[in-house]
Amino acid sequence: MQQTQTTDTSAPVKNATYHNNKGDIFTSFNVDDFDVPQGRDEVWRFTPLRRLKGLHDGSFVNPVDADVTVDGADQDGVSVETVGKDDPRVGNVSAPVDRVGAQAWTSMNTVTLVTFGKDARPAGPVTVTINGKGDDATSFGAVVIRGEQHCEGFVTIRYTGSGTHADNHEYWLDDGAKLTVVVHENWADDAVHLSNQRASLGRDAVLRHNVACFGGDVVRLIPQVKFRDQGGDAEMLGVYFADDGQYFEQRLLVDHSEPNCRSNVLYKGALQADKDSGKPEARTAWVGDVLIRANAQGTDTYETNRNLVLTEGARADAVPNLEIETGEIVGAGHAATVGRFDDEQLFYLMSRGIAEADARKLIVRGFFSEVIGRIPVENVRNQLEDQIAEELRSTAL
């Protein structure tokens, strides 16, 4: 019997609204291709649009290029360049998935490109620092990290100072490449930062993507991973600690489109507030999407989000999503929790003579250590541990 082939003529819709599945969303490098986000749009429903200082609707002031410095570029096998967005090594992973990402691409003039050469194994990390330009400017930029075949690289991307900033990250890994990235949001508390962060993994490539979010008024990150071939391994880890008036949002996607790939997602957050401060409530939103497409047999994936609400006046939203189009997988699952202290842990520590306030702080530090302990560079781990300790010093638990 003759079979008639049909062609799917449906197209992804605008405003990053999901169409056929979690991975089929509209993307573009041109800001004019996106509608202005509204509060009822699914992917913007948590975000306080009025606090974005015009990044979402084009009303931002004084657009300038980002202030970027790079340390560790003098190591063997590492090259750092400032290139234009028309460079053929830029824009290969995916176009931005929302209007702010497209605005950053449209408005920027230069890209920071870090390349780890074939078989390179530099002894130390490369540190990319983006400094805020202050209240009277809005900065835009992009960071592209490329790992050539069988290299091993470590990159820290740090954000400091005050200002309004939007950017795009690209991580392109060739076959057998291994890349560890730490994105450290260490802004002043009045900063606004929105970022698209997209990764593409070749055969047997390994990505360890870490987020540490402590500073900023509004921070919204969109990390996404796609696999180009079999054997890819992606681990997406994150810690965040929100105080009075801070809003942190993480919106992730792991798109399994190739067989025999692995992913693991683990994010942990804590929130604290002072109801008498007059500031908006401390709030976080975590949305984790994992898509296993029909031809992604042998996939092994799990995603977890844990949140500790330390005081009244704080709110955490946790939305894990798992979409599976094939049953021929190793395993898949997800979990999310929002809660207070573990009373049994608290009782155990107090029964050993530790004061209640100190016991609570120890529990919080232990809560984060599962994530921070996986970062392979000691001084980066120590920086994050110190920052958590600093947050806890001002917490009345």
Automatic annotation (TrEMBL):
Gene Ontology biological process: iron-sulfur cluster assembly
Domain SUF system FeS cluster assembly SufBD core residue range list: 134-367
Pfam families: SUFBD_core (PF01458)
NCBIfam families referenced in this protein's UniProt entry, alphabetically: sufD
Family that this chain belongs to: Belongs to the iron-sulfur cluster assembly SufBD family.
PANTHER family: PROTEIN ABCI7, CHLOROPLASTIC (PTHR43575:SF1)
Name by which UniProt lists this protein: Fe-S cluster assembly protein SufD
Species assigned in the record: Corynebacterium mendelii
